[in-house]
Specification:
Layout: E1 2-5, H1 8-14, E2 19-22, H2 30-40, E3 60-64, E4 67-68, H3 80-83, E5 89-93
Parallel strand pairs: 1-5
Antiparallel strand pairs: 1-2, 3-4, 3-5
Length: about 100
């Protein structure tokens, strides 16, 4: 099982606690995790990735094992600690302002 921690606004939308668990078939990549997340929680479709391009929304970041994976290609394998469920994939809402 893959563990994913969602930011507060997405938790509220999906009616879940901070962490969700997903069953991901095949290689564990950003794409496969987000695909599984959107299947299990369809109300999140379009909130993390654009509906058409599937690119990451500007104010969200992805962290795996204390490394920023936000700019990595979506099919880059995530670390073994994420794939084994030892560590969660963090989806963080970025803060902007001046």
């Amino acid at each position: 099982m893959i563990r994913v921690i969602l930011p507060g606004h997405l938790r509220t939308l999906a009616h879940v606690s901070a962490e969700v668990q997903l069953d991901v078939k095949g290689p564990v990549t950003q794409r496969s995790v987000l695909d599984a997340l959107e299947v299990q929680y369809p109300m999140l479709c379009g909130t993390i990735r654009d509906h058409v391009t599937h690119e990451r929304r500007p104010f969200l970041r992805f962290f795996a094992c204390e490394e920023d994976y936000s700019l990595e290609p979506p099919d880059t394998p995530l670390p073994d600690a994420i794939a084994s469920g030892k560590e969660p994939l963090l989806i963080i809402g970025a803060i902007a302002g001046g």
